[in-house]
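Appendix C: a fully annotated inverse folding record. The material below is reproduced so that readers can follow the format used throughout the book. The structure is listed first as tokens, followed by the designed sequence.
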């Protein structure tokens, strides 16, 4: 892959990949690391992409896997972090508040909600990204909606 093509891909998908990583990692620095690792892997990957959507999905999958690796690391299991999900400055207050409520859900639920509602992925696609069955994604979406509804009613 030449530098021009890489730059085009990075400019087109870095925001999408970052938001997906942020929803999984819940820490800005961990999400940035995951995105950086995903784009480094893109440079070194020996993958033939069929189209731009294939590249986007591949990058998101790699970033999510990097987040998982980070969350499952020895360091993460021994140290607790209290970083809250940071939002884009251009988002409205209501959207920021809703995203922060989604971010307070357990990671396995907030990730599927974010990918489904904010990135527009179908359950089968989310399952492929997160290495889950489609029925597992549907179950997580259902549980996440119930948890979010309960949180919103309490607020």
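Designed amino acids, in order:
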């Amino acid at each position: 892959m030449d530098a021009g093509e890489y730059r085009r891909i990075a400019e087109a998908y870095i925001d999408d990949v970052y938001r997906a990583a942020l929803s999984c990692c819940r820490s800005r620095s961990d999400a940035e690391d995951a995105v950086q690792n995903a784009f480094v892997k893109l440079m070194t990957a020996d993958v033939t992409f069929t189209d731009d959507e294939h590249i986007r999905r591949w990058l998101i999958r790699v970033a999510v896997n990097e987040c998982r690796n980070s969350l499952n690391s020895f360091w993460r299991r021994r140290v607790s972090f209290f970083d809250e999900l940071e939002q884009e400055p251009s988002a409205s207050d209501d959207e920021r508040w809703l995203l922060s409520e989604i971010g307070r859900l357990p990671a396995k639920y907030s990730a599927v909600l974010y990918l489904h509602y904010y990135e527009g992925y179908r359950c089968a696609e989310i399952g492929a990204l997160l290495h889950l069955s489609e029925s597992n994604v549907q179950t997580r979406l259902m549980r996440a909606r119930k948890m979010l509804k309960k949180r919103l009613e309490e607020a």
